[in-house]
Each structure stands twice: as structure tokens, then as C-alpha cells.
């Protein structure tokens, strides 16, 4: 309590706040004589002892001590008016001329480099030559003005180097070498020796490999060890040249040195190639181990995945996720994986007794490296290698091992299995594995396409179209899905939608003959023959030797009434594929129609060779002889036909007619045979009619009773045993259709392709339904 002081009523709580130093009283400044004197003059800064005031810069800044009352404050001297204009430079002086010329030379070099960067190589060379002329004029002018000692060597070097580079870019190698030689031989240019690398590159392009090696080594001698990266690149070039020369041992020396000093992916791959060339198994293995242990020096992909709720951090990650540096890292990783996969596929059959054992070794090595995810891809490649060797069972067994792996690998393996079973026409298994692939990865377009194919084969076209559409939603650039969708719409007779699909596909695959043929066929179905002809013309511009496309063009022109154009395309089709019966028949008929029967004979004779059991071609040959007036040859041909087909009525009729016209004795024999054959034919037809009537009666009786009679079964069996109208009556065994028989008038179902994406060859258009094949994945 002794520290507590109570307020006394007499004390003023707010006293003392108005007390201040009078020095800070601004209200009385006008009456302060000392302050006013200090403002008007520099009296306030005078020393108190009356010493002389030191010099200041106030006069230079526009101030004056003799400021009179009424004068204005003008420290910048604006009241004096505008400043006089600058004096113009005299460009006639030698120095100014030299400066202007130097600027022109620099501008020309820059324009030359810019032209080269956009691919205008000829313009770049012209600018480089012009820069060279200007630079020589500049040197001459310096000498005339007495400034020869001040020549700009850097400018001269730039002009010569740019000129040499532009010669090299335009493949004017002798001129480029001369320009480089001028620089290299000039002792005034420092570090010009490294330009021997450029000269070596030119010799390499000219395939003058010994000279290239010489200049690479000269450049290597002139580059110090401080430039390690440059030396490594030159040694890599030396190794590549030795590979081109077939000197693998020397190449191995260079590559091994690089891998020990500064290992990189390309050199490691080249080293494996060299060991493969000399067949050294153990060193191939060691080189592969070195290849997969090369550090890439790139960040992990997890760096680009947002891990927290920090907005700023996520914005930075989003910004760098697709920048050029990350793209470069991705490209390097893809290239590395490509080299490792290629090296494994190359050495697998060579490092062990069987390629399977070699693949297993490579897979084990990859699993223990930083490229673990490539092991599964190698296993799938192993299955594909089995496929190439036509060992389907091993391929299937290899792929089945992936059924318990992670979803991505399982989907890829199941997709390949579905494809394999589809090739073997085991559509149930193909459907099963397509479902498995879809369940593992619903966004896998290949799995959806294979599923659509299995449904397509079952003729459920609506459902197939849904799978193809889903594949396109997952990957809009999937050309197989778009092609198959077009085929599906075509089967559903939705021709406009099919046309839209193939037009979109044509925009992606500009030179696909299959797509263009489908467009032509669709326009033909839409009854627009002119458009169909235009698209077929594009087909033969891509595959000019395709016989079916040419035959189709002939057919369309024939339908339009243009026989001459039709003949031209049919003839070209026959020239490239002389075994198409339809083309042969049209050409033969064309020559007969135009009264050139002698020329028709060669086509019908070829048809006879192709179909020797078809009597009509031989009859056409004999008919051509008869029409051309060569009756003796016609008679011989008919006799030959009669020996092969003694029951042919038409042949016997012509034999009787020819023998009668020529007055031959054999006419009676042929007439007798003709009557006998005609009688046999008549009896056959009567018996056939009789049995048909009896069978019809039996059928009616059977339909009225619950059980059929044994007699009816015997009649049916007899009916089946009757010969056809073109067969001799003695034939009693039932005729069986050949398994490969195809009804020429019936619809032909498009079969799915049994390979990966089909490459169009000269014989791809085998029938009218060209290309109506599914594209499996």
C-alpha cells in the first residue's frame, strides 16, 4: 500500500500538455528576424566566428546569392528557351563509313543465320556471300584510311565461319572445306583447330572415312582436357566411323573409354552392337549391365505430382509439369527405354543357347535395375517373338503368366491373348480374354476393339458399334476403331454414317488405299459412280499395280458405257494378275464383240488352264476358231473336248454341224452319240421329275401322320443319290460340295483380319468386298 498514491482533488490531471520548447513555435516564425535572414541569404550557415564561407555548388545548380525580390525560381533554366539542335554527324569521315559498313556486315550475318533457322538454305548462303563481300570491302577501307592495325578479327572470323557453315548446309562440300581451311590455317584465329571437327563431319558425309578419322584425331589433339565433354563427343564420332568401316575392335576401344570416363546411353548401346557384331557373349552381357546402370540425371516423376494443399506449391508444379525441361526429360527416358528394349531383343538369342533363356536373363537384369517396369514389357516382347516364330502355344503360355500381374500389364497381355485366339478363330476364348482386358483397364482402346471384333463376328453389329465408339471416346486417334465402325455401319446399311467414318479416316490416313477403296465402294452403293471412279483413281495413284482396283475401274466404266476406258483398265488388271477369271472372261467377250476372235483365243485358253474342269472355256476356244474361219482347228478342239467330256451335248452338236459342213464320214458316229446323250438326258429328267413328285407325296403323307415310313426314307436316300443335270447318268454316288465352295451370287461375310494392322500390297483387293476386314489390336 505504501506504493499506492491516491489522486488529490486539487491536482490537474491534464496539466503540462501545452508546455513546449519555443524553438518549435511555427506561428512566430514571421516575427523571428534570425530565421527570416537565414531564408533570404545563407546567413544561417555562416560560422559563428565570422570566417569565410566555403565554396558551394549552388550557383551551378541555378541558385544565386543576389536573388532580387520579384525574380522567379528557375533552377533548370527553362526561361531561356529550347536548347539548340544537336550537330549532325558527318558521315563522310572514314571512321563513320567504317562503322556503318561494320553494322551492315553484322546485319547480314544475322539475316543469314535467321534464314537458315527457318530452312531457307539458299537465301542463307546468299546472305553469307554478301557478308563476305562487305567484309572484304571493310578491310580495304581500313587499309586506305591507315587503320590496318585496327582490323576486327572477330568479325572476319564470324563471316568466314558462317560462310563455311552455309556451304555445308547446302551440301557444297568442297567450298565448305576450302572456307574451313582458310580459318584453320590463319594463325591469328585462336582455337580455330576445333573446326577440324566440322571438316571431319563433311568427310564422314562424303563417306571418306579414313580422312574423317584423321581430322577427328587432329581436332582431339588440339582440344585440352579441360573440355572433357567436347573430347567425349569427338571420341564417340571416331567410334561410329570405325563401325562404318567395319573395324569393330577399334570402335570398341573408343566406346569402352567413353563408358569408363563419362557413360551415356547411346555409347552403351553402340558398344553392345559392336560386341554383337564380333559375337562375344560375355562382353555383351557386361555391356548390357553397364547400359542399364547409366545414370540419366533426371528427376523422378513424383516430383510433378501435387502432394499437399499448398496452393503456391501446386501452382509451381502445374507450371513446370509440361515445360520444355520436363519434355526433354520425358524424351530422354523414352529413348533410354527404347535402347534397352532393342538391346535386349538383339542379344537375347545370342547370349544363351535359346532365345527364351536369353530373354529370361535380360528380364532378371532389368528387374534388379532402375528400369523395373520394363521387365514386364520384355516378357510381352518374348511372347511376340514366339509369335514371329509361329510358336503360338508358347506365346499363349507366356502371356497367361500375366493374369495375376498389375492391371496395366494384365490388360496388355489379355489383349494379345484375345488377338491370338481371334487369329485361331477361337472366338469364345477371344471374347473371354477381351473381357478380361476390359475389366483390367476399361480405358484400353485395343481391348475394346477386340471385344467389338468378337461381337462383329457374331453379327451383332449394333453392339459392336457401341464398343468401337467407346474405344474412340477413350482414344480419338484410334484409326482401327474408326475403320471397324465404318464397316459396321456398312453392314447395318447406314451408308451415310459409314461414309462419314471413312472420310474422317481419310483425313488422318491420307495415303491408305484400303480407306479410299472403302469410300469408292460406298459411293458405288450410293449409286454415285462418278465419285466412285474418282476415289478408285486415287487408289491406283497409291498402288498403281493393284489388279482388283483396276478391274473395278473397268467395271464402273463399262457400266457407264465407256468401253474403251473399261478395256484399258481390264487389260492393265490382266497384265498384273493374269488369273482373274472375271477379267479374262470380260476381255475375251470384248474381243469377240469387236470381231477380233483370234485375240480372244489366248484369254479363253488361259481360263482353261485355270479351270480345266470347266467345259465352257474350252467350248469358247473352239467357238473362236469356228468364228474366225479356222474350221480344221475348231474341229480338232471339239474332238479334244469330246474326249474329256463325252456327255456334253453342246460339243456333240457342233461336231455334227462341222462334220456335215466339211463332208466328213464321222458325222454319223457323232449324230448317234448325240441322240444317245440327248435320250439319256431326257430319261434322267423324267426320272428326276417322277421322284420329285413321289417325294412330294411322301412329304404330304408324313406331314399328315406322326411317324414317317421306311419307304419314304429310302426314297429320300435315292433322291440324294441322283446325279446332277450336268453329270452322266451312271453316277450313283451322292455328290458332295467342295468345302471351299462359295456361292458367287450370295453375300460374302467380311472376315476379320488375322494379323496386326494390314499393310496394303499389290494383291490386297482379292474380291469385291475388299478391305471389309476388321482391324484387331
UniProtKB/TrEMBL annotation:
GO terms for cellular component: centriole; centrosome; ciliary basal body; ciliary base; ciliary tip; cytosol; intraciliary transport particle B; motile cilium. PROSITE patterns: TPR. One of its GO terms (biological process) is non-motile cilium assembly. GO terms for molecular function: kinesin binding. It is found in: Cell projection, Cilium, Flagellum; Cytoplasm, Cytoskeleton, Cilium basal body; Cytoplasm, Cytoskeleton, Microtubule organizing center, Centrosome, Centriole. Its main location: other. SUPFAM superfamilies: HCP-like (SSF81901), TPR-like (SSF48452). Residues 762-777 have a biased composition (Acidic residues). Keywords: Cell projection, Cilium, Cilium biogenesis/degradation, Cytoplasm, Cytoskeleton, Flagellum, Repeat, TPR repeat. Positively regulates primary cilium biogenesis. Also involved in autophagy since it is required for trafficking of ATG16L and the expansion of the autophagic compartment. Component of the IFT complex B, at least composed of IFT20, IFT22, IFT25, IFT27, IFT46, IFT52, TRAF3IP1/IFT54, IFT57, IFT74, IFT80, IFT81, and IFT88. Interacts with IFT20, IFT22, IFT25, IFT27, IFT52, TRAF3IP1, IFT74, IFT80 and IFT81. Interacts with IFT172. Interacts with IFT57. Interacts with IFT46. Interacts with IFT70B. Interacts with C2CD3. Interacts with ENTR1 (via N-terminus). Interacts with LRRC56. Interacts with DZIP1. Interacts with CCDC38. Interacts with CCDC146. Interacts with CFAP53. This is Intraflagellar transport protein 88 homolog.
Amino acid at each position: 500500500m505504501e506504493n499506492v498514491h491516491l489522486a488529490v482533488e486539487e491536482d490537474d490531471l491534464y496539466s503540462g500538455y501545452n508546455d513546449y520548447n519555443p524553438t518549435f513555435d511555427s506561428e512566430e516564425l514571421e516575427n523571428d528576424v534570425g530565421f527570416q535572414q537565414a531564408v533570404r541569404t545563407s546567413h544561417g550557415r555562416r560560422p559563428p566566428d565570422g570566417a569565410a564561407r566555403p565554396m558551394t555548388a549552388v550557383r551551378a545548380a541555378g541558385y544565386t546569392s543576389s536573388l532580387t525580390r520579384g525574380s522567379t525560381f528557375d533552377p533548370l533554366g527553362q526561361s531561356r528557351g529550347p536548347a539548340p539542335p544537336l550537330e549532325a554527324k558527318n558521315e563522310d569521315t572514314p571512321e563513320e563509313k567504317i562503322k556503318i559498313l561494320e553494322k551492315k556486315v553484322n546485319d547480314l550475318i544475322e539475316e543469314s543465320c535467321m534464314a537458315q533457322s527457318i530452312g531457307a538454305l539458299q537465301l542463307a548462303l546468299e546472305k553469307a556471300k554478301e557478308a563476305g563481300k562487305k567484309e572484304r570491302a571493310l578491310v580495304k577501307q581500313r587499309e586506305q584510311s591507315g587503320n590496318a592495325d585496327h582490323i576486327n578479327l572477330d568479325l572476319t572470323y564470324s563471316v568466314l565461319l558462317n560462310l563455311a557453315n552455309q556451304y555445308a548446309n547446302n551440301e557444297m562440300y568442297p567450298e565448305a572445306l576450302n572456307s574451313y581451311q582458310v580459318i584453320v590455317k590463319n594463325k591469328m584465329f585462336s582455337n580455330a583447330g576445333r573446326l577440324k571437327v566440322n571438316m571431319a563431319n563433311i568427310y564422314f558425309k562424303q563417306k571418306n572415312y579414313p580422312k574423317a578419322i584423321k581430322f577427328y584425331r587432329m581436332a582431339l589433339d588440339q582440344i585440352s582436357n579441360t573440355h572433357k565433354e567436347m573430347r567425349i563427343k569427338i571420341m564417340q564420332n571416331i567410334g561410329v566411323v570405325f563401325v562404318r568401316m567395319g573395324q569393330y575392335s577399334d570402335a570398341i576401344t573408343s566406346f569402352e573409354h567413353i563408358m569408363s570416363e563419362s557413360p551415356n546411353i547411346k555409347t552403351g548401346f553402340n558398344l553392345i552392337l559392336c560386341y554383337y557384331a564380333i559375337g562375344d557373349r560375355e562382353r555383351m552381357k557386361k555391356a548390357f549391365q553397364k547400359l542399364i546402370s547409366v545414370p540419366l540425371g533426371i528427376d523422378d516423376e513424383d516430383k510433378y505430382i501435387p502432394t499437399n494443399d499448398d496452393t503456391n506449391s501446386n501452382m509451381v508444379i502445374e507450371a513446370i509439369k509440361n515445360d520444355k525441361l520436363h519434355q526433354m526429360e520425358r524424351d530422354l527416358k523414352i529413348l533410354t527405354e527404347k535402347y534397352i528394349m532393342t538391346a535386349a531383343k538383339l542379344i537375347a538369342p545370342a547370349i544363351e543357347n535359346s532365345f527364351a533363356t536369353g530373354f529370361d536373363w535380360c528380364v532378371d537384369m532389368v528387374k534388379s535395375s532402375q528400369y523395373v517396369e520394363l521387365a514386364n514389357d520384355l516378357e510381352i516382347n518374348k511372347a511376340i517373338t514366339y509369335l514371329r516364330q509361329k510358336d503360338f502355344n508358347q506365346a499363349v503360355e507366356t502371356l497367361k503368366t500375366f493374369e495375376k500381374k498389375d492391371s496395366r500389364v494384365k490388360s496388355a497381355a489379355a489383349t494379345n491373348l484375345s488377338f491370338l485366339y481371334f487369329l485361331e478363330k477361337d472366338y469364345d476364348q477371344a471374347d473371354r480374354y477381351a473381357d478380361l482386358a476390359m475389366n483390367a483397364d476399361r480405358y484400353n482402346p485395343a481391348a475394346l476393339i477386340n471385344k467389338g471384333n468378337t461381337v462383329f463376328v457374331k453379327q451383332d453389329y449394333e453392339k459392336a458399334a457401341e464398343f468401337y465408339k467407346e474405344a474412340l471416346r477413350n482414344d480419338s486417334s484410334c484409326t482401327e476403331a474408326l475403320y471397324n465402325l465404318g464397316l459396321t455401319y456398312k453392314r447395318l446399311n447406314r451408308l451415310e454414317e459409314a461414309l462419314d467414318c471413312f472420310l474422317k479416316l481419310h483425313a488422318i490416313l491420307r495415303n491408305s488405299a484400303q480407306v479410299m477403296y472403302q469410300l469408292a465402294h460406298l459411293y458405288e452403293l450410293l449409286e454415285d459412280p462418278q465419285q466412285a471412279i474418282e476415289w478408285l483413281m486415287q487408289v491406283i495413284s497409291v498402288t498403281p499395280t493393284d489388279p482388283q482396283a483396276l478391274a473395278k475401274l473397268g467395271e464402273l466404266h463399262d457400266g457407264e458405257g465407256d468401253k474403251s476406258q473399261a478395256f484399258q483398265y481390264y487389260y492393265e488388271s490382266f497384265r498384273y494378275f493374269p488369273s482373274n477369271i472375271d477379267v479374262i472372261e470380260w476381255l475375251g467377250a470384248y474381243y469377240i464383240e469387236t470381231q477380233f476372235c483370234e485375240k480372244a483365243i489366248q484369254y479363253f485358253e488361259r481360263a482353261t488352264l485355270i479351270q480345266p474342269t470347266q467345259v465352257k472355256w474350252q467350248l469358247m476356244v473352239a467357238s473362236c476358231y469356228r468364228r474366225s474361219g479356222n474350221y480344221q482347228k475348231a474341229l480338232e478342239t471339239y474332238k479334244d473336248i469330246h474326249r474329256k467330256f463325252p456327255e456334253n451335248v453342246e460339243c456333240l452338236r457342233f461336231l455334227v454341224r462341222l462334220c456335215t459342213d466339211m463332208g466328213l464320214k464321222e458325222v454319223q458316229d457323232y449324230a448317234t452319240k448325240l441322240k444317245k446323250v440327248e435320250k439319256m438326258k431326257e430319261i434322267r429328267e423324267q426320272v428326276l421329275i417322277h421322284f420329285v413328285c413321289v417325294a412330294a407325296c411322301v412329304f404330304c403323307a408324313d406331314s399328315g401322320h406322326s411317324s414317317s415310313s421306311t419307304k419314304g426314307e429310302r426314297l429320300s436316300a435315292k433322291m440324294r443319290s441322283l446325279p446332277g443335270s450336268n453329270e452322266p447318268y451312271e453316277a450313283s454316288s451322292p455328290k458332295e460340295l467342295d468345302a471351299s465352295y462359295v456361292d458367287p451370287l450370295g453375300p460374302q461375310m467380311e472376315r476379320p483380319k488375322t494379323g496386326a494392322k494390314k499393310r496394303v500390297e499389290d494383291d490386297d483387293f482379292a474380291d469385291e468386298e475388299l478391305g471389309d476386314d476388321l482391324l484387331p489390336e
